[in-house]
Specification:
Radius of gyration: 18 Å
CATH superfamily: ATPase, nucleotide binding domain
Structural class: alpha/beta
Number of helices: 4
Number of domains: 1
Number of strands: 10
């Protein structure tokens, strides 16, 4: 049984176990800390299972804005440590690509809001032999007018998304586990420095 958490856009939590799945989400991009506990409790209750039956925690590692993304990563890490189960990292854009590649033939560029008038992007070439989205570029950060319109000579179809399905994160994790594919390091994909910076010290006051 896997529990998945993603806060790279809104907040999404899902559980998947043999024979069933449950998912809950909030579209708010400002209330991750306020809703994540409630969503975890809701999903576990809907599963009909106990938290002691969870065998792994899947963390959506972004890309995403600093404050929101770290809420989900902290929650996933704390839950995994508390339960003594593996923490499995999955790039959030890979989950979005699942839906995109079902609808579009050829190269697909997943695009999400990075704020500060910038965008996160990743390019996918389809599904690999294990049914996993094949990422060929990204995740990366760019201004809107700097997004690539083609890749290696082929036209890219843009796919904008405002949410990430934690349920699809569990699907990716299960397929990786079944195929024996190693997970990426547990590393947040902020792709830039946080908005808040350390002070340089007290300012000198002129009398």
């Amino acid at each position: 049984m896997l529990l998945a958490i993603d806060t790279s856009a809104g907040t999404s939590v899902a559980a998947q176990w043999p024979g069933g799945a449950a998912e809950a989400a909030s579209a708010s991009t400002m209330a991750h800390a306020e809703v994540i506990g409630e969503l975890i409790a809701e999903v576990v209750a809907a599963s009909g299972h106990s938290v002691t039956e969870i065998t792994g925690v899947v963390a959506g590692t972004g890309p995403g804005p600093f404050t929101g993304l770290r809420v989900g990563l902290a929650a996933a890490s704390a839950f995994a440590v508390g339960r003594g189960v593996p923490l499995l990292s999955v790039v959030s854009h890979d989950a979005i690509a699942f839906d995109a590649l079902e609808e579009v033939d050829g190269l697909v560029m997943v695009v999400t809001d990075a704020r500060r008038k910038e965008l996160y992007w990743s390019i996918y070439r389809g599904f690999d032999a294990n049914g996993l989205p094949e990422r060929v570029a990204g995740p990366a950060l760019a201004k809107p007018d700097e997004l690539p319109s083609e890749w290696e000579g082929a036209t890219v179809t843009r796919w904008d998304a405002t949410e990430v399905s934690a349920g699809l994160l569990t699907m990716i994790a299960h397929r990786k586990l079944e195929a024996g594919i190693p997970f990426e390091p547990f590393e947040p994909l902020y792709l830039r420095s946080p908005d808040v910076t350390l002070s340089n010290g007290p300012k000198r006051v002129v009398q």
